[in-house]
Amino acid sequence: MRPETILKEFEDAEAILKGHFILSSGLHSDTYMQCARVLMDARRAERLCDALAEKVRRELSETIDLVVSPAMGGVVVGYEMGRQLGISAIFCERSEGTFALRRGFRIEPGQNVLVVEDVVTTGKSSLEAMECIRAHGGNIVAEACLVHRKSADNQDVNPLPVPLISLLEITVHAYAENELPPELAALPVEKPGSRWLKSARQSA
């Protein structure tokens, strides 16, 4: 699948948002990739994950035993990637602020794990998920994502300690709160990511 075809899938889904956003990393940006809108169409999700799974097969020589995704953003794409690769897919979710396995999910010691996310920027959520996977004995061979959202100031860096296989790479500006350009600071702030959601227990 060509990059322009992939980008059109996002545009057709109205998934490229413009405004003032706080990313899961805490950085601010004028662009947000709302992959949930892309994945809400099961046929579009199938097309994109089929292309990503094929890229994973080409680039990895290791056998993959299990897909693990961080909740919430990675859940849908993780399960579709599991279906495309013909293996089980589970997710880790936050419990008391850190990622944990719940719902009876298990990772067998030594299992080769492919971490799957929707969007990777700084890799913060992915790194936290990897800590959980390693704590359960998983061997992380790579991460796959639909979008690698690169910083305009640091385009060539893989933020993860394992190979990162992305279907689409985009370069956008991201700013620390004390470095906002005036035109961005003037816009109302949105926090669209799931990192900012509070559980019922936290909200009580």
Offer a quick outline of the entry:
This protein is an alpha/beta fold.
Structure description:
There is one protein chain. The chain has 204 residues and is an alpha/beta fold. It has one domain: Rossmann fold (3-Layer(aba) Sandwich), CATH 3.40.50. 31% of the residues lie in helices and 30% in strands. The chain contains 7 helices and 9 strands, in the order αββααβαβββαβββαα. It has helices at residues 3-12, 35-39, 42-59, 75-85, 124-135, 182-185, 200-203, and strands at residues 16-22, 28-33, 66-70, 88-95, 98-100, 112-120, 139-151, 164-172, 174-175. The strands form 2 sheets. A 6-stranded mixed beta sheet has the order 5-4-3-6-7-8. The protein has a 3-stranded antiparallel beta sheet with strand order 1-2-9, with no helix packed on it. α3 (42-59) packs across α4. The longest helix has 18 residues, at 42-59. It is globular and about 50 Å long.
